[in-house]
Specification:
heterodimer; A: four-stranded antiparallel sheet; B: alpha+beta; 6 helices
Chain lengths: 132, 177
């Protein structure tokens, strides 16, 4: 699975995800990626793309959960919302998540052993990583 | 901040014993992908164009499980999914189970921008792809030796274990998207 989330100069937040699914998947199996609110979601506060165990990501309504946490929990940050999803809702080994909020705060974290990932912003913060 | 971008190329159990050359190849390609996004955003391109551009690069890169390099289904085929969403307008588009679209994220964007719907699946998505004149390819395009070998191993494990595909025991180790 691959994904990308962006905040542009006009303040637009966009999330996108694309995948071949899981190896040896059965006919007609649909994972989290095309389910708006699960593997792919963007609101006026955050854009989210997920990767990992699709069925668990769907059951957690992951992307929407992150957005709702930030919208409805007063003072909640992107980091708190992401950690809530990965640590409190999902289980170890389930998923990785990338996100960017309306302020340009970036998040890329996982509860798996690794995630191919990269982030960058206009202030020169830049990181490319695979493992923790 | 004027702009910000984050990308991923999949998560899961990634062995730390990867040869240095393989690790470096992944790092180089992730660096290339983020560089594409950085340059576009610095030039004032829209978030939706940047997301599409970066994902197209990753879809075309056989190292990642999307587009070329996609995994095999139980029937030995490739079925691809993609979605895109604009937060400020709540517009969204998605496709699932497409088999002939070179870059599924492009078709997902077309669903969002050129239809009144959010998702097309299977045959309907293929019909929409024909209507939209999006770039299409044969299934052979998605083939990579590495994914084929992973598929054969999965099939062999099925046979050896005697487990049904719907068994929870089977899925515990293999249910990754």
């Amino acid at each position: 699975t691959v994904g990308c989330v962006v905040l542009d100069q006009e303040g637009m937040l966009v999330a996108g995800t694309s995948t071949g699914g899981m190896t040896n998947k059965m006919y007609g199996r649909v994972g989290d990626v095309p389910i708006i609110g699960s593997g792919t979601y963007a609101s006026d506060v955050v854009a989210v793309s997920m990767t990992g165990w699709g069925e668990k990501i769907m059951r957690a309504v992951s992307g929407h959960t992150v957005s709702s946490y930030m919208k409805f929990k007063e003072g909640a940050t992107l980091e708190e919302a992401g950690n809530y999803l990965l640590n409190d809702v999902l289980e170890p080994g389930d998923a990785g998540m990338i996100a960017v909020d309306k302020y340009g705060n970036m998040y890329m974290n996982m509860n798996t052993s690794g995630m191919f990932r990269a982030m960058s912003d206009s202030e020169g913060n830049r990181e490319v990583a695979i493992w923790e | 901040k004027d702009w910000a971008i984050v990308l991923h190329g999949g998560a899961g159990t990634i062995s730390k014993d990867l040869p240095d050359s393989v690790k470096q190849a992944y790092m180089n390609d992730l660096d290339e992908a983020i560089s594409i996004g950085e340059e576009a955003l610095a030039n004032g391109e829209s978030a939706i164009d940047v997301v599409q551009k970066v994902i197209n690069y990753l879809e075309d890169n056989p190292k990642f499980n999307a587009g070329k390099g996609a995994v095999f289904t139980h029937e030995g085929k490739h079925e691809l999914d993609a979605a895109i969403m604009v937060g400020n307008t709540r517009n969204a588009g998605a496709v699932t189970g497409v088999t002939s679209v070179k870059n599924p994220i492009n078709l997902a964007r077309m669903v969002m921008e050129n239809s009144k719907h959010v998702m097309f699946a299977g045959e309907g998505a293929e019909e929409f792809a024909i209507e939209m004149d999006v770039k299409r390819v044969n299934q052979d395009y998605f083939y990579t030796q590495r994914r084929y070998e992973a598929y054969k191993r999965a099939i062999a494990e099925d046979s050896e274990s005697g487990l049904l595909d719907s068994s929870e025991d089977y899925w515990e180790d293999d249910k990754y998207g």
